[in-house]
């Protein structure tokens, strides 16, 4: 289990309302990943996953937020990202997780790719209420 | 910055991506490049992504689109300078950039484009060169 790091206010919440915000999310995730000591390849993976999920939040969720948190499990450290929107939600999550499935004209690699690039992946969605995706990458 | 500069180098166009591109900037580049290929009669396009620390599915799709569109306009595209961590991540993301030629750096990419133009322009001379190559002198 991953626990938020206590006693430090290094969590960051960012809005995702424009494609410029997606760039800001990438930059802040990179800063967080470096701070937690992730190796270059792991940094690259979580930044790429963040980029995919932030774009999903923007395009499919009509915008939302991301919470960037340092996490610890014993001596292990990592970064956890929670993307949240109050958009239309996903009716069939299993279908949405399939490679190549898209409703928006993209490549359909966003969700499935982000899952492959993360150590932990969790998705919650309810039609009419919104979507929340949480990913963690460990050092 | 709303536009990424496109430089003309002889028969080729060189694009050096030096900023973290937001999606609209990537779309602009796609449009600008196709126009510039036609205007400049370029035979090849080099896209240097050595400054990019990620390539996600959007940028990957843009690179694929540019390669396809330039080929239709009779210009070859070579993507150069991809960082190792970016390549590893792209594969895991599920993107293999089909139809996109790559080279390690600008120099090798340029060699590839030159060889491509030489082959297209004079197939007979090209064949002669190969036959001659074994002989002294």
What does this 3D model show about the protein?
The complex is a heterodimer of chains A (139) and B (137). With 139 residues, chain A is α+β, with helices and mostly antiparallel strands. Chain A has one domain (3-138): Heat Shock Protein 90, CATH 3.30.565.10. Chain A has helices spanning 19-35, 40-59, 93-96, 110-116; strands at 3-4, 12-16, 64-73, 76-85, 120-126, 130-138. In chain A, strands 1, 2, 3, 4, 5 and 6 form a 6-stranded antiparallel sheet that branches. The longest helix of chain A has 20 residues, at 40-59. The radius of gyration of chain A is 14 Å and the shape is globular. The two termini of chain A are 14 Å apart. The model of chain A has no long low-confidence stretch (mean pLDDT 92). Chain B has 137 residues and is α/β, with parallel strands linked by helices. Chain B has a single domain (6-132), classed as 2-Layer Sandwich (Transcription Regulator spoIIAA), CATH 3.30.750.24. Chain B has a 5-stranded mixed sheet, with helices on both faces. The A-B interface holds A 18-20, 22-23, 26-27, 30, 40-41, 43-45, 47-48, 51-52, 55, 99, 106-107, 109-110, 112-113, 116-117 and B 20-24, 53-58, 60-61, 83, 85-86, 88-89, 92-95.
Descriptive labels:
heterodimer; A: alpha+beta; Heat Shock Protein 90; 4 helices; 6 strands; B: alpha/beta; Transcription Regulator spoIIAA; 5 helices
- Measured by DSSP, the beta-strand proportion of chain A falls in 25-35%
What average pLDDT do the residues of chain A reach?
A: 92
The CATH homologous superfamily name of chain B equals STAS domain
Major β-sheet profile of chain A: 6 strands, antiparallel
Q: What is the CATH third-level topology name of chain B?
A: Transcription Regulator spoIIAA
Strand content of chain B: 15-25%
Number of domains of chain A: 1
Strand order of the largest sheet of chain B: 1-2-3-4-5
> What would you call the structural class of chain B?
alpha/beta
**Number of domain units of chain B:** 1
**Helix coverage percent of chain B:** 40-55%
Order of helices and strands of chain B: EEHEHEHEHH
Biggest protein-protein contact in the assembly: A-B, 27 and 22 residues
By CATH reckoning, the class of chain A would read Alpha Beta
Biggest pleated sheet of chain B: 5 strands, mixed
Number of helices of chain B: 5
Q: Quaternary status of these chains?
A: heterodimer
Spans of at least 5 consecutive residues with low confidence of chain B: none
Low-confidence segments of chain A = none
